[in-house]
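Lab manual, section 2.4: Encoding a predicted structure.

Procedure: take the sequence of the chain (253 residues), apply the prediction step described in section 2.3, and record the output as structure tokens. A sample record is shown.
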Amino acid sequence: MASLEAAPSLRQRRRGVAVGEILTASERHLDEHGPGGLSLRAVARSLGMTVQALYHYFPRRDDLITALVTKAFGDLADAVQAAADTPPDDPALPRMVAAAEGFRAWAIAHPERFQLIYGTPLRHYEAPVEGATTQSVRRMSAVFRRELLGGYTPAQLAACESPELSPSFHAHLERLPPEGLGSIPAPAAAIFLSTWGHMYGLVALEVFGHTAFVGAHQAEVFRVAMLNLAADVRRRIPGPRDPARSHPATVQE
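Recorded output:
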């Protein structure tokens, strides 16, 4: 019989509560002042604590930023997955398009947090190599990989129609970690990166106010673009797609 894990101690529970309060206060400060205005002193003051006390939980500014980035990616991945799993008004809407619209909705609702993870990098901040932020990005990527490419066999993905890749780029893609894009045949990985770039680009343009001239039609423009992308990807991959193999419970991330 497997042994039960020890319950968190009172001290650990109190620390968890304090860390949660600090992250919530930091997100409020981020929403008001943007990533560039993040101030540990101001966050501590809003919680009625000294900055020295805050350092007890986050010894460096980078530690707090890493926690905020990790949480933002986690919240975004949750929103994207929920959007993909929610039955759409139009049964014919591809799950990939629904997931993309979940990405857009979260970004519009949280523009400062979107800027934190996808905007101009914060000066002097370096994310830990293969740390929590990297794992969060991979989780985000896995959702879209599943919705875009799940259900296709490796042979189908290797045979997809794609401009010829240079030998060096082909080799680079194959060297990527299997938990990233390394598990996808190079032609499909290139298509995935292109699709991701198109989706992100449209969302970034809207979040940063560059498509305001479209007015109330921005959601429609985005859906049309995503439908075109989904159709283009489907056209490029030979053979039928097995929906059962693209279900979250049957696809390894």
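Check your result against the sample. Residues 248-253 have pLDDT under 50 and may be disordered.
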